[in-house]
Amino acid sequence: MRRSLTLFATLFLLWVTSAQINHYLSSLHASLFLGGLCVVFSALRLNRNEGLLTTFATGLLYDATSPLWFGCHALLFATAHMIVFRFRSRVPRDETLFPIVIGLLANLGIFFGVSFVAIHDLPTGVNPWPRLLADLLFSQVALVLAGPWFLRLQERCMEIAGVDLHLDQPGM
Amino acid sequence: MLPHRIFQRRPFLTLAVVFAVWLMLPLFVKRAMRISFFEMQAPVDLTASYVRDLQDYWALRTRSTNDLIAAGRDLARLNASYEMTLQQNATLHREVERLESVLKLPAFPEHRSEVARVARRDFNGWWQRLTLRKGRNFGITEGSPVIFTGGVVGRVSKVGLYTCEVEMISSPGFRLAATIEGDSRPISYQGGENPTLGPAKGIAEYVPLDILASLTAPKRIVTSGLGGVFPPGLAIGSLVRLEGSGDGLFKTGDVRLDSRLSEISEATILVPVKPAGY
């Protein structure tokens, strides 16, 4: 439970930071979405149940302030988590590059998932895709820039909380 | 071989169980969770907003005395003009009341104004929302109209204990009954595209065929008062382009919204005042 709470605290920090950045970006009509980063560490480094619990709770955090039905982000995050978890034994988890690539792919998937749910009842004549694709591009660039720092922060927080991650990753 | 395959699929079985449990979870549990997560974020938004105010305060402290004197002089002029407007407004208000009583007309719904600072702006391609620093602690109710100096901002969509969320008129799902200024026929307004690095736009529908508008000669559109949520006459934006709709009975066009909406830092919530004995 301690590792779930510690990881959730770091993800809450990520949510707060991205919300504040989006506040300032609003005058430029751009925004960032870093949902993919919420999945990477828990799916690659934690055991299945604790990782899923953390990811799901983070999704609910996003859901609480979104106009979509409650649980939409959480279920998308959980799906991305399980897909990454399923294939995690095939990627070198201790390197920086592969988690970032996985984060980019997860972010892409979650972003399109949210997009399809959010825009399905848009009025005719409204084409949101140019704006959505621009936001996605900004988000992916931001994820590449902030990803290594954030993953290291999560690892360091786990160390400070006295969590031994190697217990969850036999063979590492 | 079979146990190995089942083991490989276990993550997806777990996922299926999570989906099933979530779908079957009673609504009151989901509602309680939503409120809990919403209230957990409210202090963060409020703190960040107060910190920004403090930054602004210290930035203003660096201004010279001459700047302050000039700002005070400008404010005094504005106050004088507002005093005049207030007196005219009171006279017009009395006149409206007199006409309502003579003609036995139903009174317009009354509103109480609550000025609130913006705690957070959340504008993306999916939705456009504001978090304001007032909630149930100030009697804010869901559905209340929100305005600013440029006209309509949106309507309150969610109310927490200390904050509320506003769905903005630029949000694609937002709809509102409107009229062209000086014309009593109702039209429909809805939020439209929000291009990157450009101002948000809206869409006007059911515009009568005889209305003409262009970029060089835009038409101002205002709230119609129909539906009883928004008082009539509040500015929405300017109609800058019109073209015939598919059915040939009406026109459809683009609405240019106030550019200050994207930098809004303070808004007024019009909380409906229930008449005595309601």
Fold and architecture overview:
The complex is a heterodimer of chains A (172) and B (278). Chain A is mainly α and 172 residues long. Chain A has one domain (2-168). Chain A is 69% helix and 0% strand. Chain A is built from 6 helices and no strands. In chain A, helix 1 runs parallel beside helix 3, helix 1 (2-25) runs antiparallel to helix 6 (129-160) and helix 5 (97-118) crosses helix 6 (129-160). Chain A starts with a helix and ends in a 12-residue tail after the last helix. In chain B, strands 1-2-5-4-3-12 form a 6-stranded antiparallel β-barrel. In chain B, strands 6-7-8-11-10-9 form a 6-stranded antiparallel barrel. The model of chain B has no long low-confidence stretch (mean pLDDT 87). Chain B has helices spanning 2-24, 27-61, 65-103, and strands at residues 111-123, 128-132, 145-148, 151-159, 164-168, 175-180, 186-191, 201-207, 219-223, 235-244, 251-257, 266-272. Chain B is α+β, with helices and mostly antiparallel strands and 278 residues long. In chain B, strand 6 and strand 7 form a beta hairpin. The chains are: A mainly alpha (172), B alpha+beta (278). At the A-B interface, helix 1, helix 3, helix 4, helix 5 and helix 6 of A face helix 1, helix 2 and strand 1 of B.
